[in-house]
Amino acid sequence: MRAPFSARPLLAAVAVAVVAAAAPAALVAPAAAHESPSGPVIEGTVLTISAEGSVAASPDMATVSLGVTTEGATADAALRANAERMERLFQVLRRAGVEERDIQTSGLSVNPQYYYVENQPPQISGYMASNQVAVRVRVLDRLGRIVDQAIAAGGNTMNGISFGLQDQQAALNAARRDAMGDALARVGLYAEAAGLRLHRIISISEGASARPPPFAPYAMARMEDAMASTPVAPGEVETRVTVSVAVELR
After folding, report:
1. Number of other CB atoms surrounding residue 139 within 10 Å
2. 36-59+166-250 topology per CATH
3. Where are the domains of the chain?
4. Sign of CA dihedral 53, 58, 60, 64
5. How far is CA 54 from CA 168, 209, 210, 213, in A?
């Protein structure tokens, strides 16, 4: 007589087979957890620091805005008078050693001038022409003399002056080192306070460097007040760089 059929041995065999099949995946899983399409998975604490570095240096270049403003009964007359005086100004700049590449037109305009009578529409009384050039002076000792000669030659408009560096790369690199040193010092401080250590740097990004404005308003006022002898005080120019550093602490 046949023994009654029992499902227990079959179920047990199936269970063993399932466990055996699943075992290899379980062994691989820890290794896979460290991988990511974009790089290693971060297991520690992420800290992001923004820092700024700056360096001051004596300028070796100046840019001054010079020009001529003239008036005339017609637009053509105002422009002709302006062109004559501008040509004299250009000749003076060239004789002073300013190269062609360092003279650039920054503004040219002709505008009607009006007079007003009560209860009547405005009437054109004439025209005003203006021609402005940005002049780069690479030898600062000549700056005051160049300004004097330009005014004597017919220039009657000066909109400001700014100072800078002909080669700013060295100053930028010094500011970058300063910013990075500050960022890493702060990383060390936070890591120590949290009882952690720097494991690795995840990313470094640089922000825009700050430069002096081309023609600062305060510079314009000082130059207007100092036209009698045109004294020039270059002072220092500051170069700034900001960096953002992301690190992993463990």
Report:
1. 13
2. Translation Initiation Factor IF3 (3.30.110)
3. 36-59+166-250, 61-164
4. positive
5. 13, 9, 9, 16
Query: Where residue 83 falls among pLDDT bands split at 50, 70, 90?
Result: very high
DSSP sequence for 80-144: HHHHHHHHHHHHHHHHTT--GGGEEEEEEEEEEEEE--TTS--EEEEEEEEEEEEEEES-GGGHH
pLDDT band at 42 (very low <50, low <70, confident <90, very high): confident
C-alpha count within 13 angstroms, C-beta hemisphere, residue 238: 6
Task: Kindly report, residue by residue over 117-148, the tens digit of the pLDDT.
Answer: 988 999 999 999 999 999 999 999 999 999 99
Do 36-59+166-250 and 61-164 have matching folds?
Answer: no
Mean pLDDT throughout 53-76?
96
Q: Is the pTM of this model over 0.85?
A: no
Domain 61-164, CATH = 3.30.70.2970
Q: Taking Cα atoms as reference points, which of 245, 247, 237, 235 lies closest to residue 174? A: 237
Would you state the pLDDT for residue 10? Answer: 35
Query: 212 falls in which pLDDT band (50, 70, 90)?
Result: low
Quick one: average pLDDT of 173-190? Answer: 96
Q: How many CB atoms lie within 10 A of CB 77?
A: 15
CA quadruple 144, 146, 152, 154: dihedral positive or negative?
A: negative
Please give the single-letter amino acid code of residue 212: P
Nearest to 243 by CA among 186, 163, 170: 186
Q: Residue 154 phi/psi, 5° resolution?
A: 125, -5
- For residues 163, 169, 172, 174, the Cα torsion angle rounded to the nearest 10 degrees is -110
